[in-house]
């Protein structure tokens, strides 16, 4: 995909209102799950590779955040991670554009469910925590974000020292 290797291309594509409208149509394609999935991945790639406030605002204006949150609950770990990373980047770049879409989509309960999932992939849980940390650092999240960190620290993860240290670091940043 063009957006994966070229920041300039991602900027140009992410600012194109006609293209974003078409991507939104593809995100809602009822007859082809593959089109829906790839359209959401394109949105995530535009945010990740452009890292532009203009692109973040454009995606938020076109209701793309809703599709990224939906992508974060996909059955495919790679899609979940791509969505969570894009949402974290978008939040760090322009939290104001993301506040209302996050509230409307009830993002925090979605993240809590990801962290509570006993069979969820560890990398998805780390990406969810990364997004929570971004939100907490922005001052956007209410106190339940602190509770999410507590819940996450109780989830049964493989007992690796690096994971324990990462959780402790996140706790210190948020609490």
3D structure, described in words:
77% of the residues lie in helices and 0% in strands. It is mainly α. It has 2 domains: 1-105; 107-175, no CATH class. Residues 154-161 have low confidence and may be disordered.
Q: Topology as H/E string?
A: HHHHHHHHHHH
- Class based on secondary structure composition and strand pairing: mainly alpha
Number of helices: 11
Number of strand segments = 0
**Per DSSP, what share of the residues sits in E-state strands of 2 or more residues?**
under 5%
Unreliable parts: 154-161
Radius of gyration: 16 Å
Mean pLDDT metric: 81
Q: Kindly report how far apart the N and C termini lie.
A: 40 Å
Q: Which percent bin holds the helix content? A: over 70%
Biggest beta sheet attributes: none
Instruction: Give the total of domains.
Output: 2
Shape: globular
Secondary structure topology:
Elements: H1 7-15, H2 17-27, H3 33-50, H4 53-61, H5 64-72, H6 77-93, H7 95-104, H8 107-116, H9 122-138, H10 144-154, H11 161-174
InterPro entries: ARM-like, ARM-type_fold, RAP1GDS1
Please supply descriptive tags for the structure shown above.
175 residues, mainly alpha, 2 domains, globular
Concise description?
The protein has 175 residues and is an all-alpha fold. It has helices at residues 7-15, 17-27, 33-50, 53-61, 64-72, 77-93, 95-104, 107-116, 122-138, 144-154, 161-174. The protein has 2 domains: 1-105; 107-175, no CATH class.
């Amino acid at each position: 995909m063009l957006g994966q290797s070229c920041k300039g291309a991602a900027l140009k594509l992410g600012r194109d209102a006609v293209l974003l409208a078409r991507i939104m149509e593809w995100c809602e394609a009822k007859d082809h799950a593959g089109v829906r999935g790839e359209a959401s991945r394109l949105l995530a790639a535009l945010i990740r590779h452009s890292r532009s406030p203009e692109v973040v605002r454009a995606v938020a204006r076109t209701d793309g955040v809703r599709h990224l949150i939906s992508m974060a609950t996909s059955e495919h770990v790679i899609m979940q991670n791509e969505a969570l990373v894009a949402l974290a980047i978008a939040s760090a770049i322009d939290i104001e554009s993301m506040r209302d879409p996050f509230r409307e989509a009830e993002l925090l309960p979605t993240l809590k469910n990801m962290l509570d999932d006993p069979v969820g992939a560890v990398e998805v849980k780390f990406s969810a925590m990364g997004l929570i940390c971004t939100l907490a650092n922005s001052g956007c999240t209410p106190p339940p974000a602190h509770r999410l960190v507590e819940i996450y620290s109780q989830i049964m993860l493989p007992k690796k020292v690096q994971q324990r240290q990462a959780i402790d670091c996140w706790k210190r940043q948020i609490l």
